[in-house]
Write a structure and sequence with these properties.
The chain has about 325 residues and is of the alpha+beta class. The protein contains eight helices and 16 strands. A hairpin with a 4-residue loop joins strand 3 and strand 4. Helix 1 (about 15-25) packs parallel to helix 6. The chain is elongated and about 70 Å long. The chain starts with 6 loop residues before the first strand and ends with a strand.
Length: about 325
């Protein structure tokens, strides 16, 4: 079968999923339909917002479905009418068997980790938050349990110690587009040899990658320097690590912290104590040193470099982080 004869249905929602779809369409593959999340209101005006995948599909005139429920009979029927030979899922939702088992070549998923490590919704964040030195992407066939199917291909990349999650996300997004096309070609050429995840060698314990909520992002200043440093970059630029900044009167405001440096140094200060010159430096004491805050955001304000913020915000050594 030629690639232009292979009928592909593509499922995805965020920016991460657009790159793979673009690579397929620009590469001459026949994407007969796209499935994405229903539109949702966003921002203060509750303006209806299209997903990045929907915007791309409309731009390229690709037929589109946005089911509320993936087991809905009218959706299942519409999907059948597309007569897909292969389905591809990138950053979407958990599919029922009636959907993933439909095409003759099956359904494969692109996951932003080296499976079986980091099964779950936020693999890139957790790899950086945990201070990993490498990560990667995996294509695998869907089966009943989420992120557990047979692995088709993997690509590894290093994580630099200064990389934040945004940098790693963009690297994996580009590589993911290339790997999706390679995987489709391998399926077409019948050269794949899928491996069961339980048969793959894993160094160390398996780590999960659960969905991240607001409380997940709160900084624990009792942790050592490197752990906090990795935590901040693993949540930057989104959704952002945060803490309470408490003034001498005990009044607290939520501060988002985007960028920091780690300073290993012995001292006698309590964890959470702020050390500042009031002009350029804002350090937070922790057990084995300091976290130097380089950029942050106060409620209702834009993100600023520390020295920009200190020009208009009076900070003293009597403040602390909770």
């Amino acid at each position: 079968m030629k690639k232009e004869d292979l009928r592909i249905v593509y499922m995805g929602t965020p920016d991460f999923a657009v790159e793979s779809l673009r690579k397929l369409v620009d590469g001459g593959y026949q994407v007969v339909g796209v499935i994405t999340m229903p539109d949702k209101p966003a921002g203060r005006g509750h303006k209806i917002q299209y997903s990045p995948v929907k915007e791309f599909a409309l731009e390229r005139n690709i037929p589109l479905l946005q089911p509320e429920k993936l087991k809905d009979e009218s959706f299942i029927q519409s999907l059948r009418e597309w007569k897909a030979d292969l389905q591809i899922v990138v950053a979407f939702r958990m599919l029922p068997e009636v959907v993933w088992d439909m095409p003759r070549f099956g359904t494969f998923n692109l996951h932003a980790s080296l499976l079986p490590q980091y099964r779950g919704a936020a693999p890139i964040n957790w790899a950086v938050m945990n201070g990993d030195a490498e990560t990667g992407i995996t294509t695998f066939f869907l089966q009943h349990e989420i992120d557990t199917g047979r692995v088709i291909q993997q690509v590894r990349i290093p994580i630099a110690e200064t990389d934040n999650v945004g940098i790693v996300h963009d690297k994996l997004m580009i590589l993911g587009g290339e790997l999706v096309v390679e995987t489709v070609d391998a399926i077409l050429n019948d050269t794949i040899k899928p491996i069961a995840q339980e048969d793959m060698a894993v160094v160390g314990e398996l780590r999960p990658a659960p969905k991240i909520f607001k409380e997940t992002c709160r900084i624990d200043w009792q942790q050592p320097v490197k752990r906090i440093y990795d935590f901040i970059r693993g949540l930057s630029p989104y959704p952002a690590a945060w803490s309470e900044l408490v003034n001498p009167e005990g009044e607290a405001v939520i501060v988002k912290i985007y960028e920091s440096e780690k300073i290993i140094e012995s001292h006698q200060l309590a964890s959470g104590t702020i050390v500042t010159d009031g002009k350029k430096v804002m350090k937070v004491a922790v057990s084995d040193g300091y976290i130097s805050i380089l950029s942050l955001q106060l409620p209702g304000k834009k993100r600023l470099k520390t020295e920009e913020l200190l020009r208009g915000y009076r900070l003293t050594n009597d403040f602390k982080m909770n």
